[in-house]
Each structure stands twice: as C-alpha cells, then as structure tokens.
Design brief:
Elements (H helix, E strand, L loop, with lengths): L5 H23 L16 H16 L4 E3 L11 H18 L6 H23 L10 H22 L3 H11 L29 H6 L3 H16 L2 H18 L10 H29 L2 E3 L8 H10 L17 H27 L7 H26 L9 H20 L1 H4 L5 H45 L14 H5 L2 H8 L1
Parallel strand pairs: 1-2
Helix pairs in contact: 1-2, 3-4, 4-5, 5-13, 5-14, 8-10, 8-13, 9-10, 9-12, 12-13, 12-14, 13-14
Length: 498
C-alpha cells in the first residue's frame, strides 16, 4: 500500500531541486530572489535576497531524499489496538488475579504498571521528533523514558541524603552501602624494571572494559555533534577537568600517559576518527527509499532491512561559532553541558554509592546514547533556523533539565566534596582561560564590529566630497551654488542616476 502523503514526498523532492536551481540563478544574478515568495508582497529586493540566501544556505546542508511512499502495517499508530490490549491487561489484574498481601511488592508493581501505562500512551500519542528511523515509535519511547527519568531524579532530589541512598535498595538490594576505597593512581611507570616477569604490567592493568567503552562512547558522540573540532575540544577539556578535580574524586587520579596517550590519542581520538569517517559516508550516501515488497531481489530486500537502521535523511551540521554572538554562545553552552553531563557520571556514582560496574551506570549511558542524538539535532535546528524552529525541541529541553537536576543532586548529597578548594595554580589556569574567552568574545563581536562600522562610515564620508568635486563632461566641477544649492544640480543628479 502507499501513503496518502506520497504526493507530498514527491513535491518536497521537487522543491529541493528547484531551490538548488534558484540558488544558482541568484548567485549568478539572473533571477530575482523575490520569485520565491508571493508576487504581491511588497518587500525590498535587498532584504529578500538576503533572506533567500539564508534559507538556501540551510537547504544546502540537507541531502535530497527520494521516497516512493510505501506505508506498511508497522508504520501505523495502532492507537485503538494498544488501548484494547492495555484495557484487557488491567481487567485481568483487577478481576482474575489475586492481590498479594505484601506492601513492598504491591508498591513496586504499582509504580512499574504506572510507568508502563505512561509509556504506552507516549509511544502512540506523543509528538514525533526529527528522527524517524528505525521507527518513530522508537524515538517516542525514549522521549517518554526521558520524562520518567527526570521525574525519578526530582523524587531523589526531594529526599534526605540517607533516605535517597537507602531508596536505591528498592531498585537493587546490593546498593545503599558505602563504596570501598580504591587506589587509582599508583605506579605510573610505563616500563617497570622492578617487575621482571612483566615490566609492562601497568599498561596491561589499564586494558579493561573501559577502553572499548571509551572508544564506542566517543564514536557515538561524534555522530551526535558531527564536528571534529568540537569533539576534540570536549575530549581535551575533560582531561583538564580530571586534572583539576582529582582532589575531589579519587578515580580522576590517573597517570599522565593514561590521560593523553590512552584516552585522548587512542580511545577518544580513534573513536572520533571512525565517527568522522562514518559521517562522511552518511553525507555521501544516496537516500532513496523503496517499499520492501517493491524490491524484486532477496539481496535488495536484505539490504533494505539493514538500511532501515540508518537515517532517513542527512543534515550536515555547520556550527560556525564565530559567525555571530548567538551561535558562539550556543556552542559554548553545548560544550559546557557536555562536560557537565560527563562529570555527573562520576559524581552520581560517588554520592549515590553505586559501583562503576553496576548495571544502572550502564543503563544511564545507554539512555544518553539514544536521547543525545535527538537533542543535538533539535539544538542545531533551533540555533540554525530560529525563524522556523521558534522554540527549543522537547528532547533537548528534557536533556538539559536532566543534566542540571543530576548536578543539583550531587550538590545536595555531598556538598563537602564539591566545595573542596581547588589548588591555587589550577584556579589560576582556569581564570586565565575564562579571561581569554571573554576577551576574544568582546573583540570579535563588539570591538571588531564597532571598528568595521566606523571604517565604513568614514569611507562613505570620504566618497561624498569626491563625488561633488568630480568634473563634468564640459570641464566644470559639480559644485552647486545659488538656487542649485537648494534644489541640487540637475547635471550632477543625472550623472549620479547614470
């Protein structure tokens, strides 16, 4: 079967093609940009041309998509079916199942049932985000999980420190106990001559499960951010944060080669490199979609099923932080929130007494992997095209709220650790960095613009006397006198018009 919107899809494709052709005409000066709008709208040509080029620049980062509009059973909402199944389950629990006389068990089951009902509602009724593959319901599910997680964090935030830590026992009875002390720094010799059996034992001890986790994490972050410079800045900045905060958390205390060789160069650097190669492939990949039953060969069907887990379309992120103040502040905010979310991973484990290998820590990382990409796309759309995206996306709003709430939990549950004084020389380095950023911001977006406007005004003032003193065709100058000073020289006026 085909979608009713198949004609709409064809029209969108034609629109993208016409925009590309219109851009060529505008750049060559052979077309008026106002043809893209209603002919009856009285808008200045210069403003229209600037607006058209802004929209065309936005379209240039988007790929062209061809879709035959096939709509199968799995792409429908099935709201009535889900409601019927949910009602049947509730009727079964109410009439046929005997309620056990266990308050703790009934409380847990009631909370889980409430969450499942909310997820069923959200998957069928929530608003779709920017992603549609592998299925829109998949991203609606993670949107609802984001709401549930934020509500859970708010609940933990309103508890006392003791009650909040003991509440974690309802999730896992092994939690709620203080973490044992561990030595993370230790011997930092890459080659230990004192160990005759294995002089490189320090390196092999670092080769644990966190090495592939670092690589995979930065590979996915690169797919989210889609910019090499921003990824490298966040990677290096986090190592500086570990240096700065190792007096607060012992697991930040690492060897120098663990920071810069294993983390920045090998794990993070290799993950960023593979991520950029994947981005290059996704930007060059043709996005032509056919229904599975419209493909004649089995090889084509298998390939189509595999491509279902790739993006439906592709947008190249062009952050351009130095183009204007709004984009510069947005990029700084993104880097700050990324670093804060990274720090929350370690501080939450510390204040809630969760060991690093606990499954809740892994689930949190899986959660951010699924919601981070949607949030970054919504942030980019809001920053790049504010005329169309007039408000921040729902997933981006929730991710920002979650990051702030996690940090507030850390501050409330262990303020003594957070308020440990930073060493003086480290504080000097951070103050110097902040001062350089503020200085560059003032120069780039205020002092430089004022200087350029002053030079432009001065240049225009110098051009006006030159026009007045320019000789006319009969050898006389264009200096007006008498009545001509009031009405202006007709000959000079005609010359300017020519």
């Amino acid at each position: 079967m085909t979608k009713p919107e198949s004609k709409k899809s064809v029209m969108v494709t034609g629109k993208c093609a016409s925009v590309t052709a219109a851009e060529d005409q505008i750049n060559n000066g052979s077309a008026d940009p106002s043809v893209c709008r209603d002919q009856g709208t009285p808008i200045k040509s210069k403003t229209m041309k600037q607006t058209s080029r802004e929209s065309l620049s936005r379209r240039n980062t988007e790929c062209e998509v061809f879709d035959d509009g096939t709509n199968t059973f799995f792409w429908r909402a099935h709201t009535v079916t889900v409601l019927f199944i949910l009602t049947c389950a509730l009727v079964y629990v109410t009439l046929l199942e005997e309620t056990p006389h266990n308050t703790a068990y009934n409380t847990k089951r009631g909370i889980v049932a409430s969450i499942l009902v909310f997820l069923c509602f959200g998957v069928t009724q929530a608003k779709d985000g920017p992603f549609t593959r592998p299925h829109p319901a998949y991203w609606r599910f993670w949107l609802c999980v984001t709401v549930v997680y934020e509500l859970f964090l708010i609940f933990i935030l309103f508890q006392t420190v003791h009650d909040g830590r003991q509440f974690m026992k309802y999730i896992d009875p092994k939690l709620g106990v203080p973490l044992p002390e561990r030595d993370y720094g230790g011997n930092c010799l890459m080659y230990d001559p004192g160990n005759t059996t294995d002089p490189f034992h320090n390196i092999w001890d670092k080769m644990d499960g966190f090495v592939p986790a670092h690589f995979l994490g930065w590979y996915i972050k690169t797919l989210m951010i889609r910019d090499w410079w921003m990824c490298m800045i966040i990677s290096v900045m986090f190592e500086f944060l570990e240096y700065s905060l190792e007096h607060q958390l012992p697991n930040f205390s690492e060897c120098w080669w663990d920071h810069w060789i294993m983390d920045v160069l090998l794990c993070n650097g290799l993950g960023i490199y593979c991520g950029m190669k994947t981005l290059g492939w996704l930007s060059m990949k043709p996005y032509q979609w056919q229904g599975l039953w419209n493909i004649p060969t089995y090889k084509g069907k298998i390939k189509r099923i595999a491509f279902q887990f790739t993006p439906y379309s592709w947008v190249k992120f062009e952050w351009k932080p130095a183009s204007n103040l709004r984009r510069w502040l947005a990029v700084l905010g993104i880097i700050f929130m990324f670093l804060l979310a990274e720090l929350n991973t370690f501080y939450l484990k510390f204040v809630l007494w969760m060991p690093p290998e606990h499954y809740l820590v892994l689930l949190r990382l899986v959660f951010f992997v699924n919601v981070g990409g949607v949030a970054m796309r919504e942030i980019y759309d809001f920053m790049d095209d504010p005329k169309f995206h007039k408000k921040l996306g729902q997933q981006a709003w929730l991710v920002a709220a979650i990051t702030v709430t996690e940090f507030l939990i850390v501050v409330k549950y262990d303020p003594n650790t957070i308020l440990l004084p930073i060493p003086f020389f480290i504080m000097q380095c951070w103050l110097l960095g902040i001062f350089l950023i503020l200085t560059w911001t003032l120069w780039r977006f205020f002092i430089r613009d004022i200087t350029l406007r002053y030079k432009e005004t001065r240049r225009r003032k110098q051009e006006v006397p030159a026009d007045r003193d320019r000789p006319l065709g009969n050898g006389s100058t264009a200096t007006p006198s008498g009545r001509s000073k009031l009405n202006g020289s007709s000959e000079l006026l005609r010359q300017r018009k020519s």
